[in-house]
Amino acid sequence: MKYGIIGLGNLGGKIAANLLDEGFELQVHDLRPELAERHIARGAVWCDSPAEAATGVDGLITSLTSPKVSTAVMTGPNGALAALSPGATWIETSTTEVDELLRIAALARERGIGTLEAPVTGGVHRAERGEITVLIGGCADELARHQAAIAAFGDPIIHLGDIGAASTLKVITNMLAFVNMIGMGEGLMLAKRAGLDLGQAYRAIQASSGNSVEFETVAPVILNGSFDTSFTLALACKDLGLMMELGRKHDVPLKFTGLMDQMFLEAKAKYGADAWTPHVIKMMEDATGVELRSPGFPDKMMDAQDVKAFCESNELTN
């Protein structure tokens, strides 16, 4: 089958690479043509516009930064929707706004085009290995048709129901990750100020009831000073804004989420929209004059296997 991909950033670029690994025909577009070079070298076809990327494909995958950008790419001048053939499927992997997703899906349906929402969660570093969790909303028949392509970049694939369900849950998972990130920063700062070794503290927390996926994978990039989660403060603020909108829509008082929203907005104003999300913890470092560093932590995100190997090699095991 033949696919188009629009958006070749931290997520879309990894999706494209995995599809090429599995032998899918691919045509690509991004506002930054240089991001396509490595894919073109492997056989992908460059397209000059969203419409061109959508022409003649069985499925069009979008991986974009905001609902506004997704709307422009799908329905704006040279937009992809008008170029998709009846019977094709739009596969939206972006974290987006439910009502706007439903509006564009309805326009697609009028043209005989299917829609799957397929936001991903679990850490962008896992997408490179095709191991990121994919949340699916949409028709089961559409999912079955594109199962092989989605499986090329994600596992597990969880079908949550109709369009809208996956986008809602994706925003919730991001909110929960941010909760863990802020708690992690405050906990590590307390450990540091109390005189504990942060390497040993990391291992102890990782083996405790206070552990979380966010702690295991993000604490190392704070402790090594890179802060590199491949996820920006701009994206975090966008997602928290979507969460606050969901709270208003469903009449849920999100007091804690509102506090986090303000913290991330403050960090974005201080360090810039393109700074990585752990800069919300950098604010704690700046406020206390204490850096949360521990020698030896690798300059990358770690998964469970990486954590085990690191702890064993650094004698941080039980």
Explain how this protein is built.
51% of the residues lie in helices and 13% in strands. The mean pLDDT is 94. The protein has 318 residues and is α/β, with parallel strands linked by helices. The protein starts with a strand and ends in a 5-residue tail after the last helix.
Features:
alpha/beta; N-(1-d-carboxylethyl)-l-norvaline Dehydrogenase, domain 2; Rossmann fold; 9-stranded mixed β-sheet; 2 domains; single chain; 318 residues
Summarize this, please?
With 318 residues, the protein is α/β, with parallel strands linked by helices. Helices cover 51% and strands 13% of the residues.
Q: Would you tell me the structural class of the helices and strands?
A: alpha/beta
What kind of sheet is the major sheet? 9 strands, mixed
Mean pLDDT: 94
In DSSP terms (H or I, runs of 4 or more residues), the helix count works out at 14
Quickly count the domains: 2
Helix content: 40-55%
Integer-rounded radius of gyration:
20 Å
Write the topology of this structure.
Elements: E1 2-6, H1 12-21, E2 25-29, H2 37-40, E3 45-46, H3 50-54, E4 59-62, H4 67-75, E5 89-92, H5 98-110, E6 114-117, E7 120-121, H6 124-127, E8 132-138, H7 140-153, E9 154-161, H8 165-193, H9 198-206, H10 213-223, H11 233-249, H12 255-271, H13 279-288, H14 304-313
Parallel strand pairs: 1-2, 1-4, 2-3, 4-5, 5-6, 8-9
Antiparallel strand pairs: 6-8, 7-8
Helix pairs in contact: 8-10, 8-11, 8-13, 9-10, 11-12, 12-13
